[in-house]
Amino acid sequence: MCAVRLLKRLGGSGLDRRKVKRLALLQSQRMSALREKVIVAAVVTASILIFYFGSLYSTVFDPILIPNTRIDRAIPFLPIFVIPYFSYYFFLLSPMFIIHDLESFRETAFGIGMIVMVSCVVFFFWPTAITTSFTDPLLRALLAVDRPRNACPSLHASLTQFCALTMHRHIRSKAGRSALWGWTALIIASTLFTKRHAVIDIAVGMAFGWSVYQWIIAPRLPATSAIDGVADAECEGIPEV
Predict the structure, then answer these.
(1) Does the pTM of the predicted model rise above 0.70?
(2) Residue spans per domain, the chain
């Protein structure tokens, strides 16, 4: 709409009119991409909730208890870490704002969906649980909806690891990348400090997230880097989605 008003206001040279028309086309394309991102994010979020909580409250199979290792017993219970634990849900939405290339975003969404689906199949047929007696007022909201099941592989670990790896190459600044991995470390550590997972869950989850990244995203990195470089040169100064 802004481009149309600018076109009427200029009204003069054909060169200016062509520039404004090109800007209007770019704006239209970006709005279309934004709508697709929102729809994809909504579908993925709904799928996570449905399949995760469906398997969480399933009683078809009895869960296997995850061993409480010496490392787990050495990790203190720190209820304040429930804050980064819950920030995980905002972290999963971050690719929508960090990844501007639509094809890369689709692949990221596909990877997230695959991790959730495979994990939920495991949770249903081979359920695992943790033994925990820790509680605190800060964890009241978490304990009200979450159960000590769906332990291995940890979705907190697998999805956080996968999303961090996909976003890393789309963040140019060192400070931004440091913040990304700092947030990643806090989320993964929070699962241990709140006693919602054991070390085994985290190790398997991180390995799973890394494996999915290597299978879906890593093979196309060289081609993507070249394309992104050309796109940056051509679209310099144009706001991104």
Answers:
(1) yes
(2) 14-234
